[in-house]
Amino acid sequence: MKTTVALTALTAGLVAAACTSSLNNQAPAGSNPHAVLLPNTNAGLNVLGTADNFAVLAGSTVTNTGTTNVFGNLGVDPGLAVTGFPPGLVSGGIIHAGDAVALQAQNDATAASIALAGEAFTVDLTGMDLGGMKLTTGVYHFSSSAQLTGTLTLDASGDPSALFVFQIGSTLTTASSSSVLVVNGAEDCNIFWQVGSSATLGTTTAFKGNIIALTSITLDTNATVSGRALARNAAVTMDSNQVSTEACSQVSQEDAGVDVDASASDGSGNDGASLCCGGVLCGSVCRDLNSDQANCGSCGNACGADQACTGGSCVTCTTVCGGKCADLAHDYYNCGSCGNACLNGNVCSSGTCVTCPTTVCAGSCVDLTADNVNCGSCGNACLASAKCTAGSCVTCTSLCSGVCTDLQNDPANCGTCSSACPSGDSCNSGSCVCM
After folding, report:
1. What mean pLDDT is predicted for residues 208-237?
2. Which residues lie closer than 8 Å to 195 by C-beta, 6 or more apart?
């Protein structure tokens, strides 16, 4: 799902048009007529890096209530907690909780946020409501909070590579039933909302673009996002929402007069890769070559019935469920058989959903009173200098190789770090004692 944006049409002399609303088509004071929308490159620009593969990404936890649908990867890092899936569903991607993929995506989201925040702005909209405005390509700046009440229209003027960047110093908030409308070739995934703190989308908001928030993102009931919800440090909270990278579509290209079926191939069997925001075009359909069973790694490369498309390669699995390798003995979502998801409060053990006597975090049974990764609550990880004691992270008195250590009773570190007791001895009050 690469948000690869061709920028050859944007040169250093580009004059980004100002907002069109009650301002009589004049740029507000503070506009910069010489701003350049991100560096030009003949090869195009992937603004988000690997974060482009995620529809939802959080720093601490992802929580959901109701029948949320996420198309694309869902991830969290450095936290581990993902709750409410099911009943929420993830399709067109997988869940990454605290793994290397989620970590890299967070690093790339941070880099993207810094780059977007550093762009010279074309228009200063501080103190103005976005509702009712019609904006063309440009960088729009809010020194503090931004509000959307009603409909914001983004007009690409026939250029499907047109970029829209919103720099927001603090919060982004939308009123209920607000919407972002794209016209004349504008692409959903070429819209970037760089938010200095948190974003909250009101109920039934129909939003478009990539939100990169420093702290949290909250999607109120039935709000939708055609793009991405990426929270760097805190939670993404959802309630019966739809978040999808799929709609970075050929529809806008067709509106702009682009013949998607005649798009030039890049020589690798991927037709018109730079024209498809959700991945690459195979024929006239946008495909994610990292996970598409029928187009794995390249257009037309189909995986076998016993294989899953993972990272663009066909990988042989013992069991394939929904195009993904599944461990039926331990898979929370495919326990014993494909599609047999364990209910909240249960975990999958030996292919059977069993009640967890403690707490379920990210599909695993954990003891919140003593688990350093889930201390007191799911995803609340203690620092290396602390130990989870009675559900609270308690600072250690001693560290050995960065790990909290009890020098009074640890036979591997008795009295001092790396001072191990002889085999069979125990450590008592910092001294090795013969048993």
Report:
1. 95
2. 168, 170, 171, 172, 211, 212, 213, 214
Q: Is the separation of the CB atoms in 200 and 218 below 8 Å?
A: yes
Count CB atoms within 10 A of the CB of residue 180.
24
Please give the C-alpha separations between residue 129 and each of 147, 172, 178, 184, 351, in angstroms, as whole numbers. 5, 11, 12, 23, 54
Cα–Cα distance for residue pair 296/312, rounded to 1 Å: 5
CB–CB of 195/142 below 8 Å?
A: no
Q: From 47, 91, 97, select the one nearest 67 (Cα to Cα).
A: 91
What distance in Å separates the CA atoms of residue 432 and residue 419, rounded to the nearest whole number? 9
Contact status, residue 71 vs residue 91, Cβ threshold 8 Å: yes
Beta-bridge mates of residue 83: 63
The one-character DSSP state at 45 is: E
β-pairing, 191-195 vs 206-213, is: parallel
**Residues β-bridged to residue 316:** 307
What single-letter DSSP state applies at residue 63? E
Q: What is the pLDDT of residues 88-134, one digit of tens each?
A: 999 878 999 999 999 999 999 999 999 999 899 989 999 999 999 99
Q: Give the strand pairing for 403-404 and 399-400.
A: antiparallel
pLDDT one-digit tens code per residue, 47-57: 888 999 899 99
Q: What does the DSSP assignment read for 146-170?
A: EEE-SEEEEE-TT-TT--EEEEESS
Confidence of residue 362 (pLDDT cuts 50, 70, 90): low
Q: How far apart are CA 229 and CA 103, in angstroms?
A: 16
pLDDT at 189 over 80: yes
Contacts 24+ apart (CB under 8 A), 101-104: 101/50, 101/73, 101/75, 102/57, 102/75, 102/76, 102/77, 103/77, 103/78, 104/49, 104/50
Please name the residues in contact with 296: beta carbons below 8 A apart, sequence gap of 6 or more.
289, 302, 303, 309, 312, 313, 314
Question: Model-level pTM?
Answer: 0.55
User: Residues 20-77: pLDDT tens digits?
Assistant: 333 333 333 333 333 334 543 222 346 888 999 899 999 999 999 998 999 989 999 9
> What six digits make up the tokens of 160?
């499907």
Q: What is the DSSP letter of 333?
A: S
Instruction: Indicate whether 341 pLDDT > 50.
Output: yes
Mean pLDDT along residues 317-324? 84
